[in-house]
């Protein structure tokens, strides 16, 4: 985390010294996500046996937070601090072939650092994002997660600025590291590479 913010300061200071404008704002909106599991997982809590499989169907969440934008010529730098509610679905199949859908949800703080190329009102942007998990819940039986406190990924997308006060973004967020080392179900530990990519649709307002 310290390295992340040190990198942020190294980029920010030269741009702020030559900034054509510096703006602050708030933004929020809708995000869609799913869970990527690296494999089907067979678990045996008690005398039962189940197969767990991540689904590609979209799960809807929300986000809100604050951002700052520094612009120099056609380039901009935009750090953000965003609370995000996201998640995904897991298909659970028992030994008799009966299927059930369970939900996994994550509350986390995202800290993107986006570099943008401004072409008129349009903005192409992308950059790294640090993710800090606050809490998680799941419908899975006797479930405990082994999530990392912080993971890293990227965001990339396109935005448009309207009326000097409004900005709208569409982004994709991917994971460069897995969410955790695995899960504990029914008292047993299972290794699982879980990732949670998402699409982000966001409306922002400048102060």
Task: Give the topology, please.
Blueprint: H1 2-17, E1 21-33, E2 36-37, E3 41-43, E4 50-54, E5 59-72, E6 75-94, E7 99-119, E8 122-138, E9 143-147, E10 150-162, E11 166-175, E12 180-185, E13 188-191, E14 194-195, E15 198-206
What do these coordinates show?
- The protein has one helix at residues 2-17; strands at 21-33, 36-37, 41-43, 50-54, 59-72, 75-94, 99-119, 122-138, 143-147, 150-162, 166-175, 180-185, 188-191, 194-195, 198-206.
- Strand 3 and strand 4 (50-54) form a beta hairpin.
- The chain is 8% helix and 70% strand.
- 27% of the residues are buried.
- The chain has a single domain (2-206), classed as Porin (Beta Barrel), CATH 2.40.160.
- It has an eight-stranded antiparallel barrel. It has a three-stranded antiparallel β-sheet with strand order 9-12-13, with no helix packed on it.
- With 207 residues, the protein is mostly beta strands.
- The protein starts with a helix and ends with a strand.
- It has one helix and 15 strands.
């Amino acid at each position: 985390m310290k390295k992340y913010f040190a990198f942020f300061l190294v980029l920010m200071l030269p741009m702020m010294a030559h900034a054509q404008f510096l703006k602050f704002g708030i933004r929020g909106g809708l995000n869609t996500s799913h869970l990527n599991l690296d494999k089907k997982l067979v678990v045996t809590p008690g005398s039962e046996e189940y197969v767990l499989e991540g689904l590609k169907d979209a799960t809807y969440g929300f986000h809100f937070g604050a951002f700052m934008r520094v612009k120099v010529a056609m380039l901009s730098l935009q750090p953000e601090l965003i609370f995000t509610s996201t998640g995904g679905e897991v298909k659970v199949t028992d030994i008799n072939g009966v299927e059930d859908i369970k939900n996994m949800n994550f509350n986390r703080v995202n800290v993107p650092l986006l570099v943008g190329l401004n072409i008129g009102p349009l903005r192409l942007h992308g950059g790294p994002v640090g993710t800090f998990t606050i809490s998680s819940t799941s419908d899975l039986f006797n479930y405990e997660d082994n999530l990392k406190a912080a993971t890293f990924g990227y965001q990339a997308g396109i935005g448009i600025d309207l009326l000097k006060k409004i900005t709208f973004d569409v982004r994709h967020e991917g994971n460069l590291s897995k969410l955790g080392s695995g899960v504990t179900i029914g008292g047993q530990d299972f290794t699982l590479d879980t990732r949670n990519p998402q699409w982000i649709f966001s409306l922002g307002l400048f102060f």
